[in-house]
């Protein structure tokens, strides 16, 4: 192969591994757009590059629906651009890099400012255990106090400490974050976390008394969800959806 090609494309096995991740990450962006999680050009979904201390992120100026496998930018965990244009949202580096350093098993991080997520992030009680979707976040969601626009590199470690070993983080007065071993996991966790937030708002809007799931039932339900963890089962169906709405995502 031509030496003008990026390094990962000159190594066939490395190329196949990274290209698969790039396709899944591009699909995640397209799904985020489809589900209404995007915010013009803001927010970010990232994925770890297999076998390297690098991760992939969209170009800052791109809309989510414009993201393809080849348009993604590769960053080092210290923020250096390894491959792609120097068009990076610094908050994408700050929020994500510390999580990858602290959690080697995490391969995808998804951050959103959905309307429901923003609203619940402003509630003192945060996510209330009202429905089945909330059960997978029992003892599996953490909170991080608002520090401003997350452009301070010193916040990296504090974000990682706030998340701890959990899979979801509610950034107070800011939004939602999920992590997964794959983009499929992170996407489906965000799907259910955002829906659980919407249920909280719907219930509170009624002004009627509401039922919180009893703690013992919360614990039982959370254990049940661990046997049917979201991600792998739904991903083939979601990829078929992406192929329908954005057939260019693998380009």
Structural features:
251 residues; alpha+beta
What would you call the shape? globular
Largest beta-sheet details: 8 strands, mixed
Count of helical segments?
9
Kindly state the percentage of residues in helix: 40-55%
Q: Which stretches are poorly predicted, pLDDT < 50 over at least 5 residues? A: none
Q: Please give the radius of gyration in angstroms.
A: 18 Å
- Terminal-residue CA separation: 19 Å
Give the rounded overall mean pLDDT. Answer: 92
Q: Count all strands and give the number.
A: 8
* Helix and strand sequence: HHEEEEHEHHEHEEHHH
Structural class: alpha+beta
Structure description:
The protein is an alpha+beta fold. The protein is built from 9 helices and 8 strands. The protein has helices at residues 7-10, 12-34, 90-102, 115-121, 132-135, 155-163, 183-206, 215-227, 235-245, and strands at 44-48, 54-57, 73-76, 81-83, 108-112, 141-144, 168-171, 175-180. The two termini are 19 Å apart. 39% of the residues are buried.
């Amino acid at each position: 192969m031509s030496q003008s090609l990026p390094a990962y494309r000159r190594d066939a096995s490395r190329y196949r591994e990274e290209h698969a991740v790039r396709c899944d990450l591009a699909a995640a962006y397209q799904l985020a757009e489809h589900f209404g999680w995007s915010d013009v050009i803001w927010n970010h979904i990232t994925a770890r590059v297999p076998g390297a201390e690098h991760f992939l992120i969209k170009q800052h100026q791109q809309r989510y629906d414009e993201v393809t496998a080849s348009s993604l930018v590769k960053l080092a965990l210290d923020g250096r651009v390894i491959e792609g244009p120097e068009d990076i949202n610094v908050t994408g580096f700050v929020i994500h890099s510390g999580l990858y350093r602290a959690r080697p098993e995490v391969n995808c991080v998804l951050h959103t400012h959905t309307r429901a997520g923003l609203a619940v992030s402003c509630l003192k009680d945060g996510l209330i255990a009202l429905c089945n979707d909330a059960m997978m976040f029992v003892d599996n969601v953490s909170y991080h106090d608002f520090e401003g626009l997350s452009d301070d590199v010193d916040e990296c470690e504090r974000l990682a400490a706030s998340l701890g070993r959990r899979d979801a983080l509610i950034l107070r007065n800011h939004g939602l974050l999920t992590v997964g071993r794959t983009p499929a996991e992170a996407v489906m966790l965000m799907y259910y976390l955002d829906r659980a937030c919407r249920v909280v708002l719907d219930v509170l809007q009624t002004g009627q008394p509401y039922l919180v799931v009893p703690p013992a039932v919360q614990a039982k339900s959370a254990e049940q969800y661990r046997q049917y963890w979201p991600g792998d089962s739904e991903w083939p169906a979601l990829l078929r959806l992406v192929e329908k709405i954005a057939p260019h995502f693998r380009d």
